[in-house]
Amino acid sequence: MQIQEIIKAAIPGASDALCEHIVWGRTAYPFAQITAKGFYQAASRYKRAHDHGFSLCDCCDRKVDRGHSVCPSCDKALRSSV
Length: 82
What we know:
The chain has 82 residues and is mostly helical. It has one domain. 52% of the residues lie in helices and 5% in strands. The protein has 4 helices and 2 strands; from the N terminus they run H-H-H-E-E-H. The chain has a two-stranded antiparallel sheet with strand order 1-2. A hairpin with a 6-residue loop joins strand 1 and strand 2. It starts with a helix and ends with a helix.
């Protein structure tokens, strides 16, 4: 089974661009071994968040405020590492 088929099982009608976003932006692929279940879970989390009208942190998948891409905890960690 291809990765796009797994993602489309979680998000029916997902475009190729959305599948690419899930693979490269919502998982640790290619730095970690991701199972089919991992791709499905990432797609499912993304779909649930989108359906409820909120975004997820790019680093940890916590709920973030509109217009932000990282949560306050990750923002603090990222700023302290500079």
